[in-house]
Amino acid sequence: MKTISLCIKYSCLLAVIGGFAYCARNPYTATNKVYRQHAKSYAKVLRQQPGELSGANGVAAPSWVGTINFNIRKPSMVIIHHTAQNSCEQTLKTFTMEKTQVSAHYVICRNGTIHHMLNDYLRAWHGGVAKWGNLTDINSASIGIELDNNGTEPFDSAQISSLLVLLDTLQHRYNIPTANFVGHGDIAPGRKVDPSAFFPWHQLAEKGFGGWFKDTSATVVPESFNPLLALRIIGYDIKDSSAAIMAFKRHFMPADSLPGLSDAGKKILLNLQQQYQ
Ligand SMILES: [Zn+2]
Q: How much is the CA Rg of the chain, to the nearest whole Å?
């Protein structure tokens, strides 16, 4: 029993060798404690009954009458990233160091292990300066998922299998619309390129995570077609038009790394625009 209680204390990583039991200390015990302290302080914020207005200009502070009909706001988007690091362990360290100021809700290792790092209802710091449609505070609306991948290699099938199970859970739990599963590179064109062109967006779309185009063999693109407007309708920030086109192609036409938009690209874009209108 003593072994068991020690192991619980040190978050058990137990090995029995020749009849002896060893417990390895959880390297994240201290940061888990900080997590609990932060969560406690935000729970306190939820209990507050705020009454102050900013710049009231003689308007009296609101009188508090608490409604009894409410629940908690929930995430409505999922943003997928690659870590651009060399191991899951390295990313767990990065996300538990205060000086980095970055985090995600989930980290999925190459072997399919899923690490949950933040309650889905809380705001992780993974999107940075970004825009999708008219939404700019992506972190407030989304769940961030980081895939352990250095950005120049294919994604492991075990990792993608775990991702699909996680996405299915999140989609059902929070009722996330199909089109709201996007990549970091989609919401920050020109600034971010993750997940890379190796990422299997088509495979995800077949399971209902993220938009995809239908057969374009019979598509005729009219003279009046405006590709930038189509990108805008899908959600892309078109401030830097060539960056937006590259982001679109990385997601929907990963084999085409040339700049600009081919006829095939225009057909795909038109097809997607028609789905979003
Ligand atoms: Zn990212």
A: 23
**pLDDT in the model for residue 44:** 95
Please give the helix or strand (H or E) that residue 204 lies within, else none: helix 201-206
| Averaged pLDDT, 22-26 | 75
pLDDT tens digits for 237-260?
Answer: 999 999 999 999 999 999 998 889
Q: Measured in angstroms, how far is the CA atom of residue 164 from the centroid of ligand 1?
A: 18
Q: How far is the CA of 54 from the centre of ligand 1 (A)?
A: 35
pLDDT tens for each residue of 204-214: 999 999 999 99
How far is Cα 137 from Cα 2, in angstroms, rounded to an integer? 49
* 3-state SS class at 155: coil
Rounded Cα distance between 245 and 189, Å, is: 9
Assess whether pLDDT exceeds 90 at residue 147. yes
Look at the chain and count its residues. Answer: 277
CA nearest to 197, candidates 145, 246, 265, 126 = 246
**Residue 55's pLDDT band (cuts 50, 70, 90):** confident
Question: Where do the DSSP E strands lie in 103-231?
Answer: 106-108, 114-116, 142-147, 181-183
Computed over every residue of the chain, the mean pLDDT equals: 91
What's the rounded Cα separation, in Å, for the pair 207 and 73? 26
Domains and CATH numbers, the chain: 1-27 (no CATH), 76-210 (3.40.80.10), 213-277 (no CATH)
Active site residue 89: no
Placement of tokens 């508090």 in the chain: 64
Ligand 1 centroid to residue 84 C-alpha, Å: 8
Ligand 1 mean position, distance from CA 111 (Å): 20
Catalytic residue among 52, 98, 146, 206, which? 146
Q: Can you tell me the distance from the alpha carbon of 66 to that of 49, in angstroms, rounded to the nearest whole number?
A: 8
